[in-house]
Amino acid sequence: MELGLTHFLTLSAILFSLGIFGIATRKNAIMVLMSLELIMNSANINFVAFSRFGGFQIEGQIAALFVMILAAAEVAVALAIVLNIYQHYKHIDVDEIDQMKG
User: What is the pTM of this model?
Assistant: First the structure.
């Protein structure tokens, strides 16, 4: 059995759905960020799959590399925000944080 485009798109849809579910149901900021990473990984799978099976001119691996660079920058900024929130509020429950103070 050979893996086709449908298999990769199904895997990507499952990861995307799990990411959306995690963002909608979690209160912990770290879990929300992990769910966001699942969504970005599903986009990576789509880029590589369409590069392999779609016959487009753009290389999927290059697009996936850009997404990974963006994800690394996002993690650095998000971790700084989460650490600042924890330092100020002594917890990282996103439902209880209603405003950011300087």
Answer: 0.69
